[in-house]
Amino acid sequence: MNVICICLDTFRNDIVGPGKKLSDTRTPYLDDFYARSVVFEGAYGEGQPTLQMRRGFMTGCRSFPFSYNYERRGHWHHQPGWHKIPDEQDTIAEVLLARGYYTGMVADAYHMFKPTMNFTRGMVAYDFVRGQESDNWKPGHPAMIEDEMKRHVRQPINWNRHAMLTQYLYNQGKRESEDDYQAARVFSSACEWLDAADHNAPFFLWVDSFDPHEPWDPPTKYADEYCPDYDGIDFIVPGTHHEGQEATEEETARVRALYLGEVTFVDKQVGRLFDKLDELNLWDETIVVVLSDHGTQIMDHGGFGKGHGNMRTYNAGFLWYMWHPDGPHGVVSDAFVQSHDLMPTLLSRLDVPHRCEGLDVWGLATGETDCLRDHIVTGWAINTTGNAQAAASVMDGEWLYSCGVGGAEVEEMLFAMPDQDTNVVAAHPDVVALSRKRIEAVINQPLPGRMNEVCDPGPMPYISWIDGKRRAGE
User: N or C: which end of the chain has fewer CB within 10 A?
Assistant: First the structure.
């Protein structure tokens, strides 16, 4: 049996499927896949965000509590758990390679390819699709992109403040069609991989699209579906619309539309891969999984973005839709599953024995069980230097609790589900106490705790060339 895993960064779990908050977003390909797959609606990360999730997916091991001290030189930021795969942890690609699988990866999630990273372990052939966010790919100078930058930020342009966007615009160059956009390039490469590797079955392919992660930069017509007749600045980096002045309601609506438009554009690209499976007649011999790593806020509680200060379900939840040729099909489970459950679940379907910390969750699909856990704990890393810090949350179906770990200054919150608006932490000390004990059981010490991992003490001084002048950075 072949395996294809598709991971979509920052794709909310309340978009695809009927009756959800954002179900009116146009995602026809994923809607169809959702309807004929096994859907794990109770999927939440065990350690987040980006790299922590992918390491859990690929190794079947927990990343939280963050406890490894690895070299981070060459990384853009220093975050607990934001490092390579530990040497003693086998990846699913390595396990399947040893079993005769042809393995590969196509990805533009550039964090996996930074210095000291090793997420290509076990991959026979992989393609790093360059250009996302601040991937140091294309050189340039501000005059090359000044007109384009004016389309995305207010004037006067603060080039140093917009360093990430500057590099992103260098990378994108002059796009001539939809095929030149990041997600399209990723799925074009994935289709080419399948064309070339089809005869090498069985195969394992990991397709990792950084979109719909910000910058929310879809072809304009996709954002226009959700905010038509707009002629202002397209703030493709959420938050920049508040720089210098208060954003208008129309500007805020457009930022939201940019995210939804990128979701629709990504759906179209996923559909191209599904069409390739049709063309190659691979559905009957291939397990296909659609995943994400987390969601993001789009004005649900007054802002945009994700992070440790907001552990609500639209942030901590992720997609897990799984097609198996032998079924079952059209099954939806609300039971709790987590990111490190992916590897044991896949290996069990392939009759490949391997020891993982996660659980094989397929019994939820077949009806052999209706519950594997009565609660889950999620850790979310915080950008930091020195001692590692994080936020942690507990969900048990009735309550959602979150607090800081490792001395992090995080507001303590408790929500009586499904409400996620009213913080009732002061009214339910018994629930708070139980939730804290559950977090302490994972970190193996009393809260606030101290995680063993230590991030680098600080970045090296840098030289900024971004405004055309050589200037020492602070």
Answer: C
